[in-house]
Predict the 3D structure of the following.
Amino acid sequence: MSGASVTEETLTDTGLRRRIAATLLPGFVGTTLPGWLEERLRGGLGGVCVFGQNIVSVQQLRALTDAIRAANPDAVIAIDEEGGDVTRLYYESGSPYPGNAVLGRLADPEYTESVARRVGRELRAVGVNLDFAPDADINSNAENPVIGVRSFGSTPDVVAEQSAAWTRGLQSAGVAACAKHFPGHGDAGADSHLELPVVDLDAARLRERELEPFRAAIEAGTRTVMTSHILLPRIDPELPATFSRRIVEGVLRGELGFDGLVVTDALDMYGASGERGIPEAAVLAIAAGCDLLCIGTENTDEQLEAIEGAVLAAIAAGRLGRERVAEAAERVRGLAAGLRDDRKADDAATAAAGPDVPGGIDPADIERVLGAFDVSADAAEWLSAHRGRSSVVRIDTVANIAVGSAPWGPFAAAAADPAAPEAVAFTANPAVVFTEGDHPDLVLAAQSPVLVIGKDNHRHAFAREAIDRLRAERDSVLVVDMGWPSEDRRYADIATFGASRLVGHALLRLLERGA
């Protein structure tokens, strides 16, 4: 049979096209379901990934997911809701949850499980059935530009315990968990949204450290695992993890025994498609053993058509087996069927969610979060002396793409609850906003005492220079780092290990209360 006739046969195989469609999970532009996406859902599209830009309110999101499910009752509806700095439900206001690094420092798996259950209830109430959480990466590199406080910690035992607890809590609410970013993005020094990170770990080191949280999440029953776009040259010198059968089939399924659904990180990221394009990335991911392909944030009908065409061409050329596509589609459908069977929990979840859905802050959570802060002796003296009465310098660094532009820290807390006494006191302080590219003298507008608030201060030269200058020219400076601080804490008199709205409330409480 000629290549042309094989291609013609493949193109007219409706069943094959539906199986390919079942592996795709696109995003889209807008807050209502576009016509092209509705049509594809009716044609068997695997599901939809919802991002912050698609959400206006709880009611609007529920109407959107209802429309998705009306077009395809078995659609996977996914979201990236980590319950901290990375939030989609609260993209406009900041998350009312602690975030992973805070939870890891609190070292209370029962509390972590309860937080994840609350997140799951909220997601279930708005019709989402797959959450790309927990982040099971070990943040072993303090210079990591994309993981940081998204991680539960820097040691395998802490991250393993917390990942398992989050998995149990989330799935107890009827939402599938997704341990990410396999086999571990925490030691990377680059952001895979922007480039292909290289992690130079051998198999032994990978097994004893990076794989432990994933092993724990699998043992806790996670229904899905997300691959990462990182190159591990000692494991597979040619292909990133998402495209590597050695890693997906050999390590994840072979060594760890995972038999659930494997989902890719977004294929529009540079680490996946920067040098090959999304259609070819899709082919390689399926061939490697991935089942559900997260495409990206602002996908189009034309993009999906190109992806399907590339997969069909790969099958026709013998690069990709039909049976592999069928296996992937069957896993997606199996997950959807299991979630559909769990839908009886929907009414109970909605009722149980109650005040969680609007995103209110629980005062008990504020007190818990304060227990995770690292406050130096000098900071305690500053707090006792000034009780938050100071000039404020807000250092705005560019957030990584995963975090986006969600409001953060005390600024989010004060904006959400401006009448709260702590917010009134904080916003009464004179303030300077300092960003990269601003004239260095701008920070000197702040008079003593000075409160500096930033994220990952040590990673940004302009932030370090501004802090050094303030310390040299002002006699009373307190520096707060709401990201992942350096080990020496040079630019973190107070380290909060997160910048969610809840953590912002806790910082306001600390400033008002004093040490």
